[in-house]
Amino acid sequence: MMNAPLTSLLDLAPVIPVVTLEDVRHAAPLARALLAGGVEVIELTLRTPAALACLRAIADEVPEIVLGAGTVLDAEQADAAVAAGAGFVVTPGVTPALLRHLPGLGVPALPGAATVSEALTLLEAGISELKFFPAGPAGGPAYLSALAGPLPQVRFCPTGGISAGNAADYLALPNVGCVGGSWLTPRDALAAQDWARVTELARATLDLR
């Protein structure tokens, strides 16, 4: 239902870049830099006033990248993100109203969970691919490893506290398909428009799986 028509979001790349942009002029060049590094997906968070414009710019100018919207908090944001060109949405958690709204978006959704009860609620709704957030503070790889026992049918994309140094620890788990990370697009690289550095960081993630 919500995980079609795309191939599983969790199988697109070992690391989904989680990006926050404040300048729409950076949007398309950043997406092209990630593609040049072999990363064909981007999650653009709705944390800045420029976020929707950045989504539109990437959708219009770099249509070959799989474009998602992150930090989606409610139905209105979800609708606005899809209207701006998002091909999937990611939520840090879910409310009953948001959970009811997601199936009607027409794009895949990756809802967030941080507890067993939240994971069970989403599984009961037919959703077995989840964001695990905030991964580090919520228990990290040890917590996710423990969940694989009672919930082997659930796969996760942990996000929050993931770095180049610990990503492999998460990716080694059988119930982790990918991780979300912001280290591919550091603030200083964006400010300097150092797209070659972004490409290099993206390329370095391809061997993590």
Structural features, described:
The chain is of the alpha/beta class and 209 residues long. It has a domain at 12-109 and 167-204: Aldolase class I (TIM Barrel, Alpha-Beta Barrel). It has 10 helices and 9 strands. The protein has helices at residues 27-36, 51-61, 75-84, 96-101, 116-124, 135-138, 140-147, 167-171, 187-192, 195-204, and strands spanning 15-19, 41-45, 66-70, 88-90, 109-110, 112-113, 129-132, 155-158, 179-181. It has a 6-stranded parallel beta sheet. A 3-stranded parallel beta sheet has the order 6-7-8. Strand 4 (88-90), helix 4 (96-101) and strand 5 form a beta-alpha-beta unit. Helix 1 (27-36) crosses helix 10 (195-204). Mean pLDDT is 95; it is low at 1-6.
CATH classification, class level of one domain: Alpha Beta
Output the radius of gyration. Answer: 16 Å
Structural class category: alpha/beta
Please report the number of helical segments.
10
Task: Flag low-confidence runs.
Answer: 1-6
Mean pLDDT, rounded to whole units? 95
Tell the overall outline.
globular
Q: What kind of sheet is the major sheet?
A: 6 strands, parallel
The largest sheet has its strands arranged as: 5-4-3-2-1-9
Q: What is the helix content?
A: 25-40%
End-to-end gap: 26 Å
CATH superfamily of one domain, please? Aldolase class I
Percentage of residues in strands: 15-25%
Element pattern in H and E: EHEHEHEHEEHEHHEHEHH
Count of DSSP strands: 9
Tell me the CATH topology of one domain. Answer: TIM Barrel
Architecture per CATH nomenclature, i.e. the level-2 architecture of one domain: Alpha-Beta Barrel
